Amino acid sequence: MNVTYGQGAFVRDNLRLEGTIILSEHKILIVSGGEELSATFIPLEKIEKVRLSGARIQVDVRPAIMSRYRAAYEGDKKNITELTHEIVRRRGLKKRFLQNEWFEVPS
Length: 107
What we know:
By secondary structure, the chain is mainly beta. It contains 1 helix and 10 strands; from the N terminus they run ββββββββαββ.
């Protein structure tokens, strides 16, 4: 089940890749020219925090215990908002009071 969220860009450090934003069952990524761009792959279960700011979603990811990074997806404001809410719903993230930020509750 892949859901498309329109044209957008992936930004991490000095890397910026553009294409179609796709949310699949277990990952979020960019597809450009029919090919998945592996540098944009983020597993949903590794997302710790999500912050929505206009037409940009900032994602904090912890792929392993000793590593962490921050990436962002940019695109149409409506599509990015829908993407954010779908990630929050799937991950069960908690909303920070009076902010457009959701975080993982430690178990």
